TrEMBL record:
The keyword Transmembrane helix applies. GO terms for cellular component: plasma membrane. The chain crosses the membrane at residues 33-54, 74-105, 125-142. It comes from the Bacteria. Keywords: Membrane, Transmembrane, Transmembrane helix. This is DMT family transporter. It comes from Kluyvera ascorbata.
């Protein structure tokens, strides 16, 4: 099961690279915020259809959840605007490695402190090496 999830995460990362490559030209044609809106509009319609047919509602009210759990709804568009603006200027590879560096850095802190209800996973030497290699990749791609 874990290998399947790792494969799905890798495929999702590939999809984000494609999204970054698509958003730049779209933003150049219609504007960065309109490109972001189009991505979320299409995504919202698709998600609604999937929920309608495959995910019957049976649980606590969406509005009874803590407000901080909705932060992703704020962070998502900011991330997509950054992709839309950055990818055409610095390239998709540089953009995605930068995103990855930020994700891994913040993820290590979230795991280490068990933030947002996640299990504690202490920062160790191997995790720091992984972050170091990602930062090295960022420098190598920047110079290439």
């Amino acid at each position: 099961m874990q290998l399947l999830l790792i494969a799905l995460v890798i495929a999702g990362g590939m999809g984000l690279s494609i999204e970054a490559g698509i958003l730049g030209p779209l933003g150049g044609e219609v504007g960065d915020l309109w490109a972001t809106f189009s991505i979320f509009g299409v995504g919202a319609v698709l998600t609604f259809l999937l929920m309608l047919f495959f995910s019957p509602r049976s649980g606590p009210s969406f509005f009874s959840q803590p407000g901080w759990t909705l932060l992703g709804g704020v962070l998502g568009p900011i991330y997509v605007v950054i992709l839309t603006v950055a990818a055409p200027i610095i390239g998709v590879a540089m953009t995605m490695i930068g995103v990855l560096a930020g994700q891994v850095f913040k993820s290590l802190l979230i795991d280490h402190y068990g933030l947002f209800g996640t299990p504690h996973r202490k920062i160790n030497v191997q995790r720091l090496y992984a972050l170091g290699f990602i930062l090295a990749a960022l420098l190598l791609v920047a110079r290439g």
